Amino acid sequence: MSLNRREVLAATSVMAALSVGTTANAERRNRKGVRTLIKNGFLYTADANNTVIPDCWVLIEDDKIHSLGSAKDKKPKYDHVINARGKMILPGFVNPHWHESFVEGPDRAAPDDSDLERMPFSLGGDIEALGSYFGVIADVGEKFRPEEAYAIARWSLWTQLRSGTTAIGDIGSLNSTDAMAQAAIDLGMRIRVSRWGSDIMIPNGADKYKIIADTDKQTRDWDDLMKKWNNHASGLVGGMPSILACFGSSDAQLIGLRDVAKQYNSPYAAHLAPLKNEAAALWPIFGRSAIGRFDHLGMLTNRLLAVHTAYATPEEYQRIVETKVNICHSPANYGLLGEATVSETGMIGRLIMEGHPVSCSTDGNISYTGGMPEAMRYTHLGHNEAQNDNTACPPTTALATGTRNGALALGWADKIGSIEPGKQADIVLIDIDDWRYRLITHPLSVFLTAGGSKDVDTVIIAGKTLIKNGKSTTMSESKMLRDYTIAVETARTRIFGA
């Protein structure tokens, strides 16, 4: 078929218009120096000086914080504006210790508590029961189909993003590393992925341990995940090898953990001295406590993320301080498990009072059990109660445990954790325009006592608004939930027979 001159000219004009449009779109996508101004908000920077600006502006340029100031300062030029009137501006929350366990859900607990049983974490910890359980769950992630793993990972991570978490440390999950990393990338979140190691189990009262897993294989798994995901090109993903607990790892496994982390210069994590009964189980076999084993192998360093570390001797406490180990705890979760981590020894509270960079976290469960706002609330109130001192953990200190200190623990303190020029623009806006916040001058204090995850209005990561008015700007929440529900039922039936 031939075209006449008019048709040729018309076609040429259309092609030219499409070309111009495509070029313009490409230019917009590639344009640098796009500036977004957040104004009229109440800013807590969570920097080292706990800087607070009641009526502020924050300028974002591309993915970084360019500058900030108060209402009396001249506002800079900008391309877009976010009016934060009636909002509190906080750094994105950093949750350095989390386990994705959503395949065990949905929660089917009896609403009248008739099926409530004592957890093995209670009463100092049942070391044998926990060791057996850890051995079972350590490799569950390998049994998922890819589509199941992804759907479950995406929904679980979404619950954290929705509650203001912008960066998360996965210290081993009932899921695959690849699914966790890809789901985080697609959601726009930061994550350090892991696979947890657990190669032994100690029977109660025994002087020998039982080997329950292939130590070399788990070490190779760490190396593989670090090769693939550490310092990933997305800028959102890193790696962090981890073990479940000292009572679940042989010396060979600890050495493997140490060497892989050293090779990749990465953080590494462990639940270290978390239970009162652990030391009595370790001494007959290893001749050392959990902290003693780590110290003997040169593993007490500032790259160690030690979780729930509450049972240390005075000498071990001093070694933790001297070696600048990052201590993390999950105060909002202890009551669910029956642990006395905050109250029995008061060790973590003392570290906070002495200025040690303690972080808080949500831990993990079979469904959403609270976000970082709840973790910071219990950090603030729980330590004040346990130390019998209302100045033990004031609101700004609690905020640091959920932002700046968590970033330090994940090895990302240079780019996230506080609102400062040059850092990544990871920002959370909290709605404070209601009756709870009337006639007050310290909205963070009210948020940590009367607020919570549902008050998170806006979440920005690397300058991109991912949550606005409590809704995702990129994903369908209903579809994510539907995909999760289907995936979890098929996976549970096939893997657990339930």
What report would you give on this structure?
With 498 residues, this protein is α/β, with parallel strands linked by helices. The protein has helices at 5-30, 127-137, 146-162, 177-187, 215-229, 251-264, 278-286, 290-296, 314-323, 331-337, 347-353, 372-386, 395-401, 404-409, 443-450, 477-496, and strands spanning 35-44, 52-61, 64-70, 80-83, 87-91, 93-98, 165-170, 190-193, 196-197, 200-201, 210-211, 237-239, 242-245, 268-271, 304-307, 326-329, 359-360, 427-431, 456-461, 464-468, 471-472. The chain has a domain at 94-409: TIM Barrel (Alpha-Beta Barrel). A hairpin with a 2-residue loop joins β20 and β21. The longest helix is centred in the N-terminal third of the chain and has 26 residues, at 5-30. The chain is globular.
